[in-house]
Specification:
With 402 residues, this protein is an alpha/beta fold. It contains 13 helices and 16 strands. The protein binds (2S,3R,4R)-2,3,4,5-tetrahydroxy-N-oxo-pentanamide and cobalt (II) ion. Pfam families: MR_MLE_C (PF13378), MR_MLE_N (PF02746).
């Protein structure tokens, strides 16, 4: 079974997506997500210019060997652009293997470990009243877990808070827009928001919050401690995690669980966090962490240390990534939660898929492979539009993490 064609498809049905489609000599096709938000064309070029020429004629059944060929063969290893490109190839090859076997991919990963994939939705609003209404809306839709982001008084904009509630799109301009941040205002306001949400919705709803890399370790320790009475399921990205040692300091101060990993490219970004049990959930994804093959390796390491999965699933991860994620989520023993931000109707039409939401759970497609495709004719109607993520500054103008 040889690869005879490999197409890199860039499309913008409301937002940009990069997709790799592989075709084999026996007529099977496979798709892989290659979207790296704000840096899409770098991955498209990496694939078109450097990877596709090496794929033609390659045995499509050799997933592990192809992964290592692309990882070790590039000499440079790691990095988000490389790992996203490898992920696309890997995901497409798993799709093909599932179709060749006549099974959904989760069967090839060991079969089901659970009946459904618990997902969390995004309740966000400028005001606390608005937040309460949004949480209620998600509870009414059947969600068992909700991420809460509130506007911070005194700040013009806040991460995670948007006008269009179901689809948060931070990559909003060709040249990055600029936001202003105050840790003092944020830390003063946030615990009170969660006190009201917990009071209104009771103890059973899973509540989550994304700090988006904005605090120092000791500030994160303080936030975690102040949130303990409200029993969060996790505090996400409390501090940038390049310095993995820094998580020890947070751990010394709080029992609020910690989730990190959406910007990780592979196992070496989280090895210490996992093996020293400095996090509770690893949020790496199929598309940015080397595909199904490599993410499975991360999750298996995490399982040894009682760390559960909590994969990133924002709108910039395409339905191809979501389809692949759900096969892993349903199969691994140490699944925790899956983020699920809905895609627009335009995006869903470009990527017809078989996964579906019911009663707070997502269910992977049951057809052979991943159960997702790209409509290339429709995709061609949505040309690429430059769109970058914002930058963030402190009130004195100092550049801060966005
Ligand atoms: O900012 O996906 O948990 N979700 C997030 C996202 C990220 C975007 C970046 O591309 O933090 O909203
Ligand atoms: Co996040």
């Amino acid at each position: 079974m040889k690869i005879v064609d490999a197409r890199v498809i860039v499309t913008c049905p409301g937002r940009n997506f990069v997709t790799l489609k592989l075709v084999t000599d026996d007529g099977l096709t496979g798709v892989g997500d290659a979207t790296l938000n704000g840096r899409e064309l770098a991955v498209a070029s990496y694939l078109r210019d450097h990877v596709v020429p090496t794929l033609i004629g390659r045995d499509a059944s050799r997933i592990e060997d192809t992964w290592n060929y692309l990882y070790k063969g590039a000499y440079w290893r790691r990095g988000p652009v490389t790992m996203t490109a490898i992920a696309a190839v890997d995901t497409a090859l798993w799709d093909i293997k599932g179709k060749a076997a006549g099974m959904p991919v989760y069967q090839l990963l060991g079969g089901r470990s659970r009946e459904g994939v618990t997902v969390y939705g995004h309740a966000n609003a400028e005001t606390v009243e608005g937040v309460l209404a949004e949480v209620a809306r998600y509870v009414d839709l059947g969600y068992k877990a909700v991420r809460v982001q509130a506007g911070v008084p005194g700040l013009a904009t806040t991460y995670g808070v948007s006008g269009d509630k179901m689809f948060y799109e931070p990559a909003d301009a060709a040249v990055p827009t600029e936001a202003v941040w105050s840790t003092e205002r944020y830390l003063a306001h946030t615990p009170g928001v969660f006190a009201q949400v917990r009071d209104e919705f009771g103890p059973n709803l899973k509540l989550l919050h994304d700090v988006h890399h904005r605090l120092t370790p000791i500030e994160a320790g303080r936030l975690g401690k102040s949130l303990e009475p409200h029993a969060l399921t996790w505090m996400e990205d409390p501090t940038p995690a390049e310095l993995q040692d820094s998580l020890r300091l947070i751990r010394q101060h709080t029992t609020t669980p910690i989730a990190i990993g959406e910007i990780f490219s592979g196992i070496w970004d989280c090895q210490q966090l996992i093996t020293e049990q400095l996090i509770d959930y690893i949020r790496a994804t199929v598309v940015h962490a080397g595909g199904i093959t490599h993410l499975r390796r991360i999750f298996d390491l995490a399982a040894l240390y009682q760390v559960r999965s909590g994969s990133h699933g924002a709108t910039d991860l395409s339905p191809v990534c979501m389809s692949a994620a759900l096969h892993l989520d349903v199969a691994i023993p140490n699944f925790g939660l899956q983020e699920y931000m809905r895609h627009t109707a335009e995006t869903d039409a470009v990527f017809p898929h078989g996964y579906h939401f019911a009663d707070g759970y997502l269910h992977p497609a049951e057809e052979p492979g991943l159960g997702v495709d790209i409509d290339e004719d429709l995709a061609a109607q949505y040309p690429y539009r430059p769109a970058a993520l914002p930058v963030n500054r402190l009130e004195d103008g100092t550049l801060h993490s966005w």
